[in-house]
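Duplicate of #3305? Posting structure anyway:
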């Protein structure tokens, strides 16, 4: 990751909000699947997803995140899809992002592209991050912003929930795994154990949703959560998302105190509702 960042000029830009852009183009996402609704076998929806990915690449993003945040096998089954169909839909989230990257790179090749975007050459490789939303996102009741899963939910419960989904996404050819909107240390621990148990070699980042300048949504300290993430060799970066901007500086400072200086801290605060990519340090 650090070598790749150097090719980007020392920093990289992640894309912005996916669902808000899809809605801006007319997609109806009033559904428990949210943006993952566009993964359903509909050529128009797939075209729209590719377009939004391309819009972010044109705007200067170096990393595009797949539409799998709210895509789960359990959620697809609730919609009447078989397990095999649900697995295919998960794979398609990475495939569509890869198609968008191929189209973008093809344009650069065709045009012998050597222009500068935001002070950088547009030639550094584009990375695809396979999004893994939290258990709370699947519940579609705002739990990812509270972290209160209840006493019945354990690390093993969460590992059972995420395992097959993570296997499929990792096998679909992304460059990164993005564990997003993590609301508590319980789920962070489950992700760390899954990465190790499944032998996944793809770099990952952990991004926490936080309620103030020192605690994640559940009330667990950001320092403790960052320590859990930092214990896993596969975790290339730790960050914050879906959090009020006024808390970001303090949260990043707390993460940086935990994070090994050879690795990365990734601060970003809100998913913007327009094409406005986010800076990653």
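Output from current build:
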């Amino acid at each position: 990751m650090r070598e790749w960042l150097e090719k980007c000029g020392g920093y990289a830009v992640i894309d912005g909000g996916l669902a808000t852009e899809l809605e801006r183009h007319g997609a109806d996402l009033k559904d428990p699947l949210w943006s993952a609704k566009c993964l359903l076998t509909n050529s128009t929806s797939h075209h729209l997803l590719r377009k939004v990915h391309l819009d972010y690449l044109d705007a200067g993003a170096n990393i595009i995140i797949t539409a799998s945040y709210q895509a789960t096998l359990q959620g697809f089954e609730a919609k009447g899809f078989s397990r095999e169909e649900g697995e295919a839909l998960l794979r398609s989230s990475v495939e569509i992002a890869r198609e968008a990257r191929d189209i973008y790179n093809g344009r650069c090749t065709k045009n012998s592209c050597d222009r500068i975007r935001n002070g950088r050459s547009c030639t550094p490789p584009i990375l695809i991050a396979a999004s893994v939303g939290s258990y709370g996102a699947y519940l579609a009741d705002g739990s990812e912003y509270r972290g209160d899963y209840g006493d019945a939910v354990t690390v093993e419960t969460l590992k059972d929930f995420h395992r097959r989904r993570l296997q499929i996404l990792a096998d679909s050819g992304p460059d990164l795994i993005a564990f997003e909107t993590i609301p508590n240390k319980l789920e962070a621990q489950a992700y760390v154990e899954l990465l190790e148990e499944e032998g996944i070699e793809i770099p990952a980042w952990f991004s926490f949703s936080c309620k103030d300048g020192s605690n994640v949504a559940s009330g667990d300290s950001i320092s403790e959560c960052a320590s859990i993430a930092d214990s896993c060799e596969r975790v290339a970066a730790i960050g914050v998302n879906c959090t009020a901007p006024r808390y970001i500086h303090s949260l990043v400072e707390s993460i940086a105190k935990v994070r090994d200086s050879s690795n990365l801290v990734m601060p970003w605060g809100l998913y913007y509702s327009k094409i406005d990519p986010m800076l990653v340090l």
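Confirmed duplicate; merging threads. The radius of gyration is 18 Å. The domain at 2-280 is CATH 3.20.20.330 (TIM Barrel).
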